[in-house]
Design a protein that fits this description.
Blueprint (H helix, E strand, L loop, with lengths): L3 E7 L20 H9 L5 H6 L19 E5 L8 H8 L17 H11 L4 E5 L2 H15 L3 E4 L4 E7 L5 H14 L8 E8 L6 E2 L4 E4 L7 H7 L4 E4 L2 H4 L7 E3 L4 H14 L3 E7 L1 H7 L4 H12 L2 H7 L4 E6 L18 E6 L8 E5 L3 H11 L11 H4 L6
Parallel strand pairs: 1-11, 1-12, 2-14, 3-4, 5-6, 9-10, 9-11
Antiparallel strand pairs: 2-13, 4-5, 6-7, 6-8, 12-13
Helix pairs in contact: 1-11, 4-6, 10-11
Length: about 400
């Protein structure tokens, strides 16, 4: 019997382009594989031991004869390659229509209303890298007090502000206003507060980022777990992605390593239910910034924490490791990439060496969790619980 599931998202760690990658201009994308090629190899002994190199299409990691976990990969059913779409599908939702994007900037009517309601003019209003735009407009922002508004290839309205110029609570208030505006005809997935500190030429974004997401349109696996009386613990940006729905406890994090630390802390506090953790640094710090060396180092650092997680687990625990999309740091542009994601299952109850194959949807994870925790299923995915847990119905 499984009493607790640890769902760990390695944000953006894709493992090869999906068959429909041409529709997203992502032919040839392979986050893990291309990082290894660009940096002379990658050393992930613990993920390899679990079976990462045994997954179909993963050539960057050497296959192992007797993996300790079950392994496979999942394709994305939903039309998109963004954070919200990926996480919602992992939680059992199918997003049929892609979220709206504004690659040319936001309409004048939107910006006029936003500026009227915040009582200030704004800077920017174009698609850009977050680090690049604060370098470009940071000094003008500090002199004028105008927030920097920008977007990306994702469905996002981002507001950057220096913490000494616009206090963090004021920045959050601006984001709440933008969230109210960006609904209906202008609805997009997320409004993101992007606070930073420092001086021109040496600005640094802080950990007090905050996302204001659309609420999922229907109940997710998280709601069903909560309704069944299970603790649903969100670590990292999970609470923001689901707009708080279906979550009983939440803790935000400052980095990947803080994410693992907080996950371990939550394991001490909650012995049953679901602990859902996102490690965002891969995507935010290295994928979007097209830094394969930094990405590789972050992966190797996370790999070293796997034994610590396994040591803290109980016999009735299941660890599921996956991703929400790709973000190939060797690829053109700064956007996410449309890729398969890995699935690794670890724990004393797991039948080692089982290949669960290529799943048709990330939602198979949601169905598996619903199956194991005996909750209602969203019925988008197909459970692989019987493949990875032997004699569980005995």
């Amino acid at each position: 019997m499984i009493n607790r599931i640890l769902l760990l998202i390695l944000d953006s760690v894709g493992i090869g382009a999906l068959p429909d990658a041409d529709q997203f201009n992502d032919i040839g994308a392979d986050t893990l594989g291309n990082i290894a090629k660009a940096t002379g190899g990658i050393h992930l002994p613990n993920l390899r031991k679990a079976g990462l190199g045994n997954i179909e299409g993963v050539d960057a990691i050497e296959e192992i004869h007797q993996p300790t976990g079950a392994f496979g990969r999942a394709a994305q059913l939903s039309m998109g390659k963004d954070t919200t779409t990926g996480h919602w599908e992992i939680a059992g939702l199918h997003t049929e229509k892609p979220f709206q994007t504004f690659p040319e900037g936001f309409p004048r009517e939107v910006m006029d209303l936003f500026e009227e309601r915040i009582g200030r003019k704004s800077l920017g209003n174009y698609a850009a890298s977050g680090t690049a735009i604060i370098e470009e407009l940071g000094q003008e922002h500090m002199e004028s007090g105008s927030p920097i508004v920008y977007t990306s290839a994702d469905s996002v309205f981002q507001i950057a502000a220096h913490e000494e110029i616009i206090p963090i609570e004021e920045l959050y208030r601006m984001c709440e206003i933008a969230r109210e505006i960006m609904m209906g005809d202008f609805a997009l997935a997320r409004i993101i507060a992007r606070p930073f500190i420092g001086e021109p030429g040496s600005f640094t974004r802080t950990h007090r980022r905050k996302d204001y997401s659309l609420a999922p349109p229907s109940p997710t696996m998280l709601d069903h777990c909560k309704d069944a009386g299970h603790p649903v613990v969100a670590v990292g940006k999970i609470e923001d992605i689901f707009n708080g729905k279906g979550i009983t406890h939440a803790v935000h994090t400052e980095s990947n390593m803080d994410g693992v630390d907080q996950m371990l802390n939550m394991m001490q506090e909650h012995s049953t239910g679901l602990i859902f953790t996102n490690l965002v640094d891969f995507d935010m710090k290295y994928g979007h910034r097209r830094d394969p060396v930094g990405y590789r180092k972050a992966l190797e650092e996370a790999d070293q924490r796997i034994p610590e997680i396994l040591e803290a687990m109980k016999p009735e625990d299941l660890l599921l490791i996956t991703a929400d999309h790709g973000n190939d740091p060797t690829f053109e542009g700064t956007d996410h990439t449309r890729e398969y994601v890995p699935i690794l299952a670890l724990g004393e109850a797991v039948t080692a060496g089982v290949d669960i194959g290529t799943r048709k949807s990330f939602a198979d994870i949601a169905s598996t969790i619903a199956d194991l925790l005996k909750t209602k299923d969203t019925k988008i995915g197909i459970s692989f619980a019987d493949q990875i847990i032997a004699n569980r119905r005995g």
